[in-house]
Queue: 4 jobs
Job 1
Amino acid sequence: MKYCNFFILFAFIAMIFFSSCNQQKENDGEWVQLFNGEDLSGWIPKIAGYEVGENFGNTFRVEDGMIKVRYDAYDSLRNRFGHLFYQDELSNYKLRVEYRIVGEQCPGAPAWAYKNSGIMVHGQTPGSMERDQDFPTSIEVQLLGSDSLVQRTNMNVCTPGTNIVMNQVLILDHCTNSSSDFYFGEDWITAEVEVRGNEVIYHVINGDTVLQYNQPQLDERDATYARLIDLNGGDKMLHKGTISLQSEGHPIDFRKVALQLLD
């Protein structure tokens, strides 16, 4: 009986310990809204061909409590890809956005950009980009839609100016598909990215983890490498960077952009 009571007590203490650990993990930083629902305070636009801060054609705008990406001022896209940067660089965090891809593609946008947008993480700063640079050197979490014309998985990863490691192998391909389902229509989708410095990055869509990879790093083959590795203290491994929302030629809405800092 004495040993039975001991094991009951041990089990009770273990339950409290693991419950406490799980609670600590759940409380690992509060979720903070990065978008106030009223304006683009704290965000910086950079559109290819324009100076930092110049929001050509009101491409990034706030309407109906949402960040909207629109092209009504464009006669043709003409490779004027844009990015809306959050003002701070980040290292260990979760980023959660609620988005929907809507409407018709901008005239002149490339075929691969159809129902295509993205979230850039571990990116260079907008001030370090060249005036005509299309995309920041970064890790791109693709936001992709499907319809009768095209079907593809969602939250794939692309690597403008970067590389990643998967299963201990350096991946030199520009894009790698996730394991997600196809997403049709204009429903709201919740996309989450968990970034752990240079350790690991997870892609999560509507609660399901569909991709993970390790050691994001600068690509020695890229034209930005020599300049950015100097800015990175001589280290090609990416431990932190900017986040940005993409303008790639198809209208998209973001109704929530939330951040949770991690230890």
Job 2
Amino acid sequence: MKVDYKRLCKVFHVVLVSKGFDDRKAEKCATLFADASLDGVASHGLNRFPEFIRLLDAGYVNSKAEPSLDFSLPVFERWNGNLGAGPLNAGFAMDRAISMAKEQGIGVVALHRTNHWKRGGNFGWQAGKAGCIAICFTNTLPNMPAWGAKEPKLGNNPLVIALPKKPAPMVLDMAMTQFSYGKMLAYLRQGKEMPYPAGFDQNGEMTKNPEPILAHNLALPMGMWKGAGLAMMLDLIASLLSGGLSTHEIGKLEEEHAISQFFLCLYPPKLGMNEGEMQQKLEAWVEDLKEANTFSDGPSVFPGENSLKNRAHNLKHGVPVDKVIWEEVVGMLDQK
């Protein structure tokens, strides 16, 4: 089933207003959810919207909250998200990092007591479009085992890296698990196995079946022990710099909330970098990548390339949606 992008934004917007968001916040939040599905990441767009509303209704997300400043330096700020909407808090934090970078060359924001940012790639695109190089990441509840462990003690702690390539940025958006939980849920709903091993069953055997993985939060760390180690370090950096909760502390809460995040921006013109030379290097890199022989019919792709293709296609032909989830969200219009 396909839905027009503007229709997707409108339905999200109306539901959010009915749940207490003012018009400005509702529009911004609705756009972030819709953009994820538009770019082919429905697992963190439409598919996550009912969960967002559930947490909002349960009081874990505060529609009225605004971030408050705890500490500041010319190139570093620490903010309290006050349990506001995760996508809005993350967008705000990235805006602050961009602003500092454009003044000082570098800007860093550490954010605590926020909520799930849904599609982290949104904030990479935000920075890249503003002409910045960016790195941002978040921690989560424990949903991934350390290498060799039988129970989850690490978060899948998504990492986003963006480069301001023209005409559109290059954006890497990846969880520390081989597949995100949203992606595994999508495969489970379709009754499909994952294309590669995605986690472990109760016997410690790798499996492509998402059901036992989801049942026990035993997702495979990306890069095996390397991904597990990277996830641990990202969690510690975000929680220490923000003064917020780490993954093992979030795991003691009744629901995932009050998480910690980190946003870093670099503005090349302020760092003595020539814009034209930078773009030439990026273009040369892409050209070299495309010349590589591949095992498939198509060329290699760079980070964010498929999102750009999906965006153009779905704007023209409609955004693919899960019919059951879409009807659930549309049904919320009758409850307002």
Job 3
Amino acid sequence: MLDRNTAPATQEVAELKLPLPNVHTLDNGIPVYETRMGTQDIVKLEVLFHAGRPHEKKKLAARATAALLKEGTTTMSSAEIAEKIDFYGGTLNIPVNLDTSNVILYSLTKHFNKLLPIVADMVTNPVFPTDELGAFCERNIQNLAVDLTRGDVVAYRKITEFIFGEHHPYGYNSSEESYRALTRDDLTEHFKRNYHAGNCRIFISGKTTGRHIDLLNTYFGKVIPKGEAEDIAFAQYLPTPEKVKVPHVESVQTAIRVGCKLFNRNHPDFNGLYILNTILGGYFGSRLMANIREDKGYTYNVFSSLDAMIHDGYFYVGTEVGNEFTEKTLTEIYREMALLQEELVDEEELSMVKNYLLGNMLTMLDGPFNVADVVKTYVAEDLPINDFDSLTQTIKNITAEELKALAKKYLKPENMWEVIV
């Protein structure tokens, strides 16, 4: 009989190895990372351009350009694009990212040759119709008006603005004025300057063959123009952190964000901080959750996040609480940071977090599409793919003493911006 009063024994994840992709180079120099795995006749294609906010000349141009790629080309209308993709059972996504513009296609293997020309046409011959740009702006203005009624959205916008600066690509916020200022010429200029081979990376995964690579060379390698990647540099912005209160009459709760500027994944301390953040507030069993939700009952959800972009990164704690619990919640947030600076994480908690993270990483390697996503993360951020192994080794071997030292170095209250909405 199964004894449901006794939890099953914890099993250590013995080995994690990221399957390395096959790397091909198209005629125009675009690298293709092929993850040839899987048993189902499905292929995922992701075409990535370094054409996000850091590459803009005008605010929101990157987002609008990516969104309107599917709204018509010199040979097809938006309706024809949608109809053809639907007819062949494909799925097309163009997610919004800060750093990159990505076009993602899921296709049955047998129809890849039918759908690939459509994607190629979108990223080489878009027309950016003026009426579609107007509709895009109106939709986003309406969505923004709804979002700004939410305290958590306002708090997130404010803390990123304070950390990076209101004119920084990672710090500026969208507004009705910035949407209305967009013109078709802005999108055309952004497209011509950034959608070229020097900024492009292609990731293909699933049940692939050499035929798929040949097709990529035909429709991308011989068509997308060559170009040089642009060097990105930002002006130094290091303001003194402050405590900011933002009145928000429509909110029945108080949104709290506490955070600071850090760095991207290239930094030698990033992997260790990734583990420290998990302990503090990076999973459901975290210290912030156990204290502020489970013990005190101040909130339904509290978390901490270590967000890494290509050129920078930041850390923050977020929660929404009843107005009467604001100060008490802030006290507990700083208290948990202080405990990590003053006391060693005990072996049982550290072992649990390590097993949790390794289990997550095991899931990240489950199937060709997940593996390709991991490969894309490292390639997009210009990191060696074998840094995945470095992360797993850090998780397995990091000590309580090292975590305490990281907490002392980076979780200082005087370095934290505090935003209360």
Job 4
Amino acid sequence: MGERLLVLGGGVIGLATAFELSQRGYAVTILEKAMCGGQASGAAAGMLAPFSEIAEDPDDFFQLCLDSLRIYKKWQQEVKRVSKLDFEYTESGSLHAIYHEADVLALETRKSWQEQWGTKAELLTGEQVRKMEPLLSNDTIAAMYYPEESHVFAPDYVKALEKACRNNGVEIYDQLEAVEVLDWKEDILLQSKRGQTFRADRLVICSGAWASELEATFGIRIPVYPIRGQICAYHMNASEIKHIVYTSQGYFVPKANNTLVNGASEDIAGFQTNVTEKGISRLTNWNKRVFPHLRQNKPFHTWAGLRPATQDGFPLIGKLQNADHIIFATGHYRNGILLSPITAVAVADLLDQKANYEPLRSCIPERFS
């Protein structure tokens, strides 16, 4: 193909997109102002759980998430093959636990529409749930079991994506501090804070929570806002908890390194990524109701990351209508890890001029202008 592509942003979406494009023969360069995977990507719990997280009727966003889940197994195998690095990918299944009789109907309603999408969901009684996860509280009256849902260890997944990109010849420039788009209407020309210049035939915007900085450049509204997500982790034996456990207050993800990840507390704090006592206490105040044994434990690790949220909850994925050499792939909120394969494939298909992928009709970049 020979086309030169610049990918602006080295988070999980930028890395995944660059990887897929390099697999298809494009010459790709990633520009990252900080470290690759340093914000939302490396801080994520790594859940691949669209059935648990999306409670409403299916829409294009649900379709995106479900399609990505169902290509994930093959995708992660290819990342491992090219990178020659391993990372945790666990087809654990999940339990969406509830604590009030009134919530049973909501789970039954959810099951009825999700079955139309081929899920193998099973509504379990409290007794059945505790047989699967004995450490769950007796307050758990029921749960929906989703055997398809999985998780990855996000920091290692991001490292493998970066290595896979490098092994495919992708050039990566990170710690650039700032990157300015000098020209894009005809020729694409970007410049780093240090004065390095980069030219390309096409530009893919994957700058996450910083995408709104480009509003004046492209003359469109880009309402992507940073939401701080705070997470904590507990020591645990690998055999103690086997499934993702999801509740209305948050989630737990057991990892192979003998930790239990508990998240996430969210707040609006600009671009601050510091951990706060208030944010972590939101987790520790309720998690004991789910797992009573946590009363005797304290988190050994706490951290935070920025999640790029859009005004309507849908990411921005697609070409600019009057400049099809500019492609957006940003605003994935807390689903960047899950959506990384399908976003990468969708962007590459757009560049290859393949048939339109219907869910992208809700992700048009100019829809807020």
